């Protein structure tokens, strides 16, 4: 796959932010929509995370998986937004987005929504964003063994529920 590149330093090639946004924006939005179950919240969270990536593009662009960084920032932003909504209204936030064309099979999404948040985040990061266990550990700020455990437990729960 060809990316628009700019040369930085000796032989390091870095994708431009515009190219990254065009290439990865939809992919990250979809992952956040699956992770949150809310396509509108995912759009807001993705845009907020992309703004933060733009502001730090010099550092983000050389990461092994900038999409993963944007995903983690977007999920954190979305989680904080949901907490504020619940606190202000004392009402549960409804699950929406299962009929959204941005998310895959509704049965899979419903099963994912039943997973604990930490398991759901790593399953989505691994299979929708192709993040490695090492990248996830660094992005989520936990040990690689913790990521392996969350991924294993999440996949076991999915297998059980979907079989």
Q: Which structural traits does this protein have?
A:
two-stranded antiparallel sheet, globular, disordered N terminus, 163 residues, mainly alpha, single chain, 69% helix
β-strand number: 2
Structural class: mainly alpha
Q: How many whole angstroms does the radius of gyration measure?
A: 16 Å
Order of helices and strands: EEHHHHHHHH
Number of helices: 8
Distance between the termini: 36 Å
Q: Largest sheet, if any?
A: 2 strands, antiparallel
Query: Which blocks of ≥5 consecutive residues have pLDDT under 50?
Result: 1-11, 89-101
In terms of quaternary structure, what is this? single chain
Taking strands numbered 1, 2, ... along the chain, how are they ordered across the largest sheet?
Answer: 1-2
The shape, in one word, is: globular
Q: What is the helix fraction of residues, given as a range?
A: 55-70%
Strand residues, percent: under 5%
Q: How much is the average pLDDT?
A: 81
């Amino acid at each position: 796959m060809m990316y628009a590149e700019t040369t930085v330093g000796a032989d390091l090639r870095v994708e431009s932010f515009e190219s990254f946004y065009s290439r990865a924006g939809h992919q990250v939005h979809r992952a956040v929509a699956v992770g949150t179950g809310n396509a509108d919240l995912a759009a807001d969270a993705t845009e907020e995370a992309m703004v933060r990536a733009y502001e730090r593009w010099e550092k983000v662009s050389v990461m092994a998986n900038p999409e993963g960084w944007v995903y983690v920032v977007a999920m954190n932003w979305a989680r904080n937004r949901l907490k504020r909504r619940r606190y202000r209204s004392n009402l549960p936030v409804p699950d929406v987005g299962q009929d959204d064309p941005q998310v895959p099979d509704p049965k899979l999404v419903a099963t994912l929504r039943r997973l604990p948040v930490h398991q759901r985040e790593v399953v989505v990061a691994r299979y929708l964003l192709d993040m490695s266990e090492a990248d996830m550990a660094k992005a989520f700020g936990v040990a690689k063994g913790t990521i392996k455990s969350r991924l294993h437990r999440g996949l076991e729960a999915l297998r059980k529920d979907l079989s």
